[in-house]
Design goal:
Elements (H helix, E strand, L loop, with lengths): L1 H71 L3 H8 L8 H9 L4 E6 L4 E4 L14 H6 L5 E7 L1 H7 L3 H5 L1 E2 L13 E2 L2 E11 L5 E10 L5 H11 L11 E6 L2 E5 L16 H7 L5 E7 L2 E11 L5 E10 H52 L15 H90 L8 H25 L7 E4 H15 L5 E6 L7 E4 L1 H17 L5 E10 L4 E8 L6 H4 L17 H11 L3 E6 L5 E8 L4
Parallel strand pairs: 14-16
Antiparallel strand pairs: 1-2, 1-7, 3-6, 4-5, 6-7, 8-9, 8-12, 10-11, 11-12, 13-15, 16-17, 17-19, 18-19
Helix pairs in contact: 1-7, 1-9, 9-10, 10-11, 11-15, 12-13, 13-15
Length: 662
C-alpha cells in the first residue's frame, strides 16, 4: 500500500511538472532565439549606421579637395597667363598647394582642353585632356568632384612617381574570387576640377587635381577612429574600414595574421557579386578568414561605373561571446525556475492525493449499495483502487449509453447511405432521360437531314453544271460574268452545307485505325496557321507526352471535330488572345481527354444548352451544324463532349474519347 501511495504522488507530481517543464523549455528556446536575433539585428543596424558615418567622412574629404582646387584656381598669375595665351611660369603657390595638401597631381588646361602646366610633372604639356569627363565638365563651367580610376600610363603623365605607388601585389584570399592578375597597376583617386574664369567672366581654362587612395590609410584610419572610437591598435578586435578598387583592398585598417594592413587582399566573392552590380551589402560576411558584421557601399566614378567599394565592419566573435554569456545567464535563470517548479509540483502532488483517496472511498461505498448523501474527504488511499471502484459504477452507465449511441449511429448511417443512393439514382435517371431525349431529337433531325440532302444533291448538280457551261459560253458578256461566278460560289456553299447534313445524319461509315492524338493536333494547328493568321494569338500546346497513347478511331472524323472546335475558339477571340490545346490520358479508365480553351468573350449559360442543337448558331454566316456534327461524331465513338464557360472569361471544350473502339 505504501508503494501504491507513493506511485500516486509520483504520477500527480509528473502530471503537474510536465506542463511546467514544457513551458520553461519553450520560453528558453524563444528567449534564446530572440536574443540571437536581437544581437544580430542590432549589430547590422550599427554597421549600417557606421557606413553612413564613413560615407560622410569620405564626402568631407572630397569636399575639402574640391575647396582646395577651387581656392587654388583663383591665383591671379595663373588667370593672366591663360588669358594672354602666354607660357605659364613656375608658380610657387601651386607647388606649395601640391606639397602642403599632399595632392598626387595638380594640372592646368586651357579652354580647349590642352594641358598648359602640370605642377607634379612640369616637363610634359600640350596633350589634350578634354576626353576625360572630369575636364569636359569643368570646361562647361561646372565644378566637379568624385572618384576616378587611372591607368599607370595616365597617372605617369600627371606625376612620374605615381605608377610605383599605385602598384599593389594581389594576394590570394580565402572566400575571394579567383584573380588572374598578380599585380594591380591601376589607381583609384579622389579628384576635383573647377573652371578658370577671366575677369570678364569668360572661360580661360580649368584646373584639376587628385589624391591617390592606393596604399594611403589616412582616410580609413580617420573613419575607424571617428566611427568606432578607437585607434589603430584596436582594429584587430574592434571595427575597421576599407577602400576597395574593384574587390582589391587598396587602403584598409583590417589586419592580417602578421598584424599588418591587409593591402592587396580580396573581398568575399559573395559580397563582390552584389556590390559589382551597384547594390549595397549589409549582412554577415567573411573578411579575410573570419566572419564580420559588414556594410559595403559601391563607389562610382564620374560616369556612374562601379569602380570600387567603401566598407565598414565589426567582428562577430566579441558579439557571439557576449551572446553566449547572456544565454548562460538566461539558462541559469531557467534552471532555477525549474527547480522551484519541481518542488512546487511535488507539494501539489501530495496535496492532490488526499481528496482523490476520499473520493475513491466514497465511490466504493456507493458501489456497495450504501446511500450516502455526501462523500467525506478524511483519509488517503491508492489511485489505482480509486479508478477501479469508480470505473465499476461508471462502466455500467457507459456500456448502456454506448449501446444506445451505437444503435443511433447505425440507424443514422443507414439513412444517410440510402438517401445518397436515392440522390445518385435520381441524378442518373435525369441524365439518362436528357441523353435519350437528345438522342431521339438528333436521330429525327438526322433522318430528315439525310433525306433533304439526298433530294437537294441532284438539282444542285444540274445547277452547277449549267452554271459552269454558262461560265465558259462564248455568248456570256463581261457584265454577267460576276453573276455566274456568284452562282457557282453559292452552289459550292450549299454543297458544303449538304455535306455537313450528311455527316450529321451519320451516313458515312467509320474507318477505325490507330493514330496519335498529339500528331493530329500538331498537323491541324499547322494547317490552320496557313488559313488563319496566328500572329495575334498565343498558342499553348500542353500535351501529356510522357504517357502519350495510340488511340483508335476514325482519324478524319475526329480531325473534323478538332478543326471545328479550334476554328470556333480562334473566331471567338477577334482581337487576339490565348489558345490552349491540351491532352491527358487515364490509362486505367481507358480514355483520352482533349481540352481546347480560349480567352475570348465566353458563352452565356442560356446559350450553352443549345450549342449542340442542329442549325443553332451565334455567327451571322454560320450554318449551326459544326458543333452538332462534332457531337454526333464523338458520341458515335462512344465518347462525350462538354463545355465550360462564363461570359467574358473564355470557353473550354472537353472531348473525352475511349482509347479503344469496340
Amino acid at each position: 500500500m505504501k508503494w501504491l501511495r507513493g506511485s500516486i504522488r509520483f504520477k500527480l507530481t509528473v502530471a503537474t511538472l510536465l506542463p511546467l517543464l514544457a513551458a520553461i523549455s519553450i520560453c528558453w528556446v524563444i528567449g534564446a532565439s530572440l536574443i540571437t536575433t536581437r544581437f544580430s539585428r542590432q549589430a547590422l543596424q550599427n554597421v549600417a549606421s557606421n557606413l553612413n558615418s564613413a560615407r560622410e567622412i569620405f564626402n568631407s574629404d572630397l569636399s575639402r579637395l574640391s575647396d582646395t582646387i577651387r581656392l587654388t584656381s583663383q591665383t591671379p598669375e595663373l588667370i593672366a597667363a591663360l588669358t594672354q595665351a602666354a607660357p605659364i611660369p613656375d608658380i610657387p603657390a601651386l607647388q606649395t598647394v601640391l606639397k602642403n595638401e599632399r595632392l598626387s597631381f595638380l594640372t592646368v588646361v586651357d579652354r580647349y582642353g590642352f594641358v598648359r602646366w602640370r605642377a607634379a610633372n612640369p616637363g610634359i604639356s600640350g596633350d589634350s585632356a578634354r576626353g576625360e569627363k572630369l575636364v569636359a565638365d569643368a570646361l562647361k563651367k561646372v565644378p566637379v568632384s568624385g572618384v576616378m580610376l587611372l591607368s599607370a600610363l595616365q597617372a605617369g603623365r600627371e606625376n612620374p612617381r605615381l605608377p610605383s605607388r599605385m602598384s599593389l601585389a594581389v594576394k590570394t584570399t580565402a572566400h575571394g574570387r579567383r584573380y588572374t592578375k598578380q599585380v594591380e597597376e591601376r589607381g583609384l583617386f579622389l579628384v576635383a576640377a573647377t573652371p578658370l574664369l577671366a575677369p570678364d567672366g569668360t572661360l580661360a581654362g580649368a584646373m584639376y587635381g587628385g589624391v591617390l587612395l592606393n596604399g594611403d590609410n589616412r582616410l580609413v584610419e580617420r573613419i575607424t577612429q571617428v566611427v568606432f572610437k578607437h585607434g589603430d591598435a584596436d582594429t584587430r578586435s574592434g571595427g575597421n574600414a576599407t577602400l576597395f578598387l574593384d574587390d582589391i583592398r587598396i587602403a584598409s585598417t583590417v589586419r592580417d595574421e602578421q598584424g599588418r594592413p591587409a593591402i592587396g587582399t580580396l573581398m568575399s566573392e559573395e559580397v563582390f557579386s552584389r556590390v559589382s552590380r551597384g547594390s549595397s551589402w549589409i549582412g554577415s560576411a567573411f573578411v579575410l578568414n573570419a566572419r564580420y558584421f559588414t556594410a559595403y557601399e559601391p563607389l562610382r566614378d564620374l560616369r556612374g561605373t562601379v569602380v570600387g567599394a567603401l566598407y565598414v565592419g565589426m567582428p562577430e566573435k566579441p558579439l557571439l561571446h557576449l551572446r553566449q554569456q547572456v544565454n548562460l545567464i538566461f539558462s541559469a535563470l531557467m534552471v532555477f525556475v525549474t527547480l522551484i517548479g519541481i518542488a512546487l509540483s511535488a507539494w501539489l502532488g501530495a496535496t492532490l492525493s488526499r481528496p482523490i483517496r476520499a473520493l475513491e472511498e466514497g465511490v466504493r461505498r456507493i458501489a456497495s449499495g450504501e446511500n450516502l448523501p455526501d462523500i467525506c474527504v478524511e483519509s488517503h488511499d491508492e489511485i489505482a483502487s480509486l479508478a477501479g471502484e469508480f470505473n465499476t459504477m461508471k462502466r455500467r452507465l457507459q456500456e448502456r449509453d454506448a449501446e444506445n449511441q451505437l444503435l443511433n449511429r447505425t440507424l443514422e448511417q443507414k439513412v444517410l447511405e440510402r438517401t445518397n443512393e436515392l440522390e445518385e439514382k435520381g441524378q442518373q435517371l435525369l441524365n439518362t432521360q436528357r441523353d435519350l431525349a437528345q438522342a431521339e431529337r438528333l436521330a429525327g433531325i438526322g433522318l430528315l437531314a439525310s433525306g433533304v440532302a439526298h433530294e437537294i444533291n441532284n438539282p444542285l448538280a444540274v445547277i452547277r453544271g449549267n452554271a459552269e457551261l454558262l461560265e465558259i459560253s462564248a455568248t456570256l458578256s463581261a457584265a454577267d460574268q460576276p453573276e455566274v461566278e456568284t452562282i457557282i460560289r453559292q452552289v459550292g456553299r450549299v454543297e458544303r452545307i449538304v455535306s455537313n447534313l450528311l455527316a450529321f445524319a451519320g451516313t458515312r461509315k467509320k474507318v477505325i485505325r490507330p493514330f496519335q492524338m498529339e500528331a493530329l493536333l500538331d498537323d491541324l494547328l499547322d494547317q490552320i496557321g496557313h488559313q488563319i493568321p496566328l500572329e495575334r494569338y498565343r498558342v499553348i500546346r500542353s500535351y501529356q507526352m510522357e504517357s502519350a497513347e495510340i488511340i483508335e478511331g476514325d482519324e478524319d472524323q475526329l480531325r473534323q471535330v478538332c478543326t471545328n472546335l479550334i476554328v470556333n475558339a480562334l473566331q471567338a477571340m477577334e482581337t487576339g488572345g490565348e489558345l490552349n490545346v491540351a491532352t491527358s490520358y487515364d490509362v486505367a479508365a481507358g480514355r483520352c481527354v482533349v481540352t481546347i480553351a480560349d480567352s475570348g468573350t465566353g458563352i452565356s449559360p442560356d446559350i450553352q444548352d443549345k450549342l449542340f442543337t442542329p442549325f443553332f448558331s451565334t455567327k451571322a454566316r454560320g450554318t449551326g451544324l459544326g458543333l452538332a456534327v462534332s457531337y454526333g461524331i464523338v458520341t458515335d465513338h462512344g465518347g462525350d463532349i462538354r463545355v465550360a464557360s462564363e461570359a467574358g472569361q473564355g470557353a473550354e471544350f472537353t472531348v473525352v474519347l475511349p482509347l479503344r473502339q469496340a
